Amino acid sequence: MPRCSCRSVAAPLLLALLYVSLLMAGAGVFWALESETEEERAQPISRDQWDQLLNRSGMEPPQLEAFIRDIIEAYKTGINLQQNATTLLGKWKFAGSFFFCVTVVTTIGYGNLSPSTTGGQIFCIFYALVGIPLNLILLNRIGQWMSNWVHRCSNVLGKKLSRPKTAKVLTSLCALGLGLLLFFFLPPLMFTSIEDWNYSEGIYYAFITLSTIGFGDYVIGMNPAQDYPPWYKNVVALWILFGMAWLALLINLCIGFLENCGDICQCCRTGAKKETEQDLSDASQDSNLQPVLKETTEKVEMFSSGDSMKPEIAD
Amino acid sequence: MSRFLLCDRQTGWALALVLGYFLYLFLGAMVFQLLEKQAEAQSRNQFKLDKLKFLQNYTCLDGPALEQFVQIIMEAWEKGVNPKGNSTNPSNWDFSNALFFAGTVVTTIGYGNLSPSTLAGQAFCVFYALGGIPLNLAFLKQLGKGLNMYLVRLERCLQRPGHSMVVQALTVTFFLVAGTLLFLIFPPMIFSYVEGWSFGEGFYFAFISLSTIGFGDYVIGTDPNKHYISVYRSLAAIWIIFGLAWLGLVFNLGTELMEKINQLKWHKTSRMTVENSVTKLEDHLDRSRDQEVNSSSKIKIVLTVGSCLMAIWFHGSDSGLPARMEGLELGSSDSSEAQFDLSDLIGWFVELEVSLDPLSQAVPMTPPNSPPWSQAGGEEDVASEAVSLEAVLQRRGRPLKDPNVCGQKSSLPALELTHSPEGPRDVWRDP
After folding, report:
1. Number of domains observed in the structure of chain B
2. Is the pLDDT of residue B264 over 50?
3. Cβ(A102)–Cβ(B24) under 8 Å?
4. A202 pLDDT band (50/70/90 cuts)?
5. Whether the Cβ atoms of residue B388 and residue B396 lie closer than 8 Å to each other
6. CB contact under 8 A, A49 and B72
7. Chain B residues closer than 8 Å to A283 by CB
8. How distant is the Cα of A225 from the closest Cα of chain B, in angstroms?
């Protein structure tokens, strides 16, 4: 235990330190970037308009405040106040509810819609409790299917090029590029043409959605002044599903990379590995165990081949 | 023939999954519509009424002017400016708030009460999340490992011969109950006290936060009329991080249970298919086998199903939130076993088998000659597990004809194979 304590303590500690410093750095940058513009924005609203409103309405300040509070409460509950009363957007119609369900089970949670009744909140908890695992399974499946596909491509290419390693790298790069194009650079084009956003906002929306952060500052299909084609929301839902699987794949690769980097205490690690190998080779050299090892190796080979369900293996 | 059967089953399961998923979504949509539509209509009418009343009271304001006023307020609200109160509101983007925001980004909670509005902020947010989310997941995984280590230690402290299963079940229950209390019951009490919410709302906030859905309809520390103690948000952040690690374990358990239920079914119905393919492969590779192999393969299948089920139980408490994304690795895509960390699973299985075997009770779980890093977790852990098994078997001097022991032993080369570049599937691919 004492020999390896440096690794088992240092790596998590380093990770924790890195994590905290990342949070701090991010906070600093956002602070620097956003607080100035926020102040700029706040100025006209809080000073000029405030005075103007007070003068125009002839209200007392407390009354005005109470009125503003009412408006915000109403806005928070998802009512669109801009239109006149007859054309208000019914957010909890079926299409809206469906979109809300997608945001719940994928844990995107835009928050432009959220249940306000106690019943709705309770149901939401149980719904998410079942829906999130289900969604994860589906994402796993899609990711598996995608990586299978890439694997197959690299196999075919490897046979043609007769250099499997370069083929693997090539297909991985191709998959990455194609995924980027398909999930990050093309959908924003659609958003810019349908929503009232520019391209960078579209990319920002795509990333915030697929990473399941889901601030809800940009949400598709929420502008009542816009006419949306009927296929729009379905296409976006599909994009979310596949894009999330793809991004999960990418983030997973990043995690693998990070964790490999995290094993910094190489001395302990290599020492430990050597000892394990030594033990194993000792065991295999033991004459008593030799036939047993051989037999079990055979059995495991047989079993693992029988167990794996991929068709190309049974081939 | 067997190939097509296998293919059909897999696509069938995938299809059922997709269908179930969409059905689930539709069902949810219907229920939410049912629950929320009335409330929405009610509050909408209420607002209309308020507006009319307001217009009646202040005759100097006409309709369009009021509309404009409402629009201004809404825009302000969208941009994160609180239009209530005087203009000396504290900034939304001071350092502690920015830190809170950074936390909501990397954990993917994304409440959205704050979001970057400048182009530079948005661009930085994208890259920040790209680096921060994996880091956060790695951190949570480590945290989950740490939590699990304590669990295992507790288990070992409590363990008495003959009570292992009961003890394990008890520790898991204890883990669940303690976690629920610590992460889902007490914090909502504090929140509801500080924020003036009902307990139900506090609990709802806790769940929405820890599941990383993060609607942002309830966010702590945002009421400008309240004075919060300075560490309030930091404490909440710590709660979120630990709670995420814990809830990740729970969600993980659910996910794997669902997957395993299907797998169990598959194993039961297609045991014949497996055996067919096994015999086919045997012929193909032209290896001599005796009768015992076939009969023991049956036993092994049963054993694996059992071990898988037991392994889920443990695996659920082994890896944290990142396991949500496990199984998506490019390499581990062949069998459905690759859905989770095979080495972990087998390691658990080995340990369980050893601990369940009455003969091994006399032998300590970690033999003295086993390497000392056996508690470090990860690959080394599994390797040491294998070594300890080796030692146990050696010491026992038991003949290895026993199918039970065969089942145990079989996992040892599997470990080597899964960690070596040429896995078993590569061996079969180009015979």
Report:
1. 1
2. yes
3. no
4. very high
5. no
6. yes
7. 387, 390, 394
8. 14
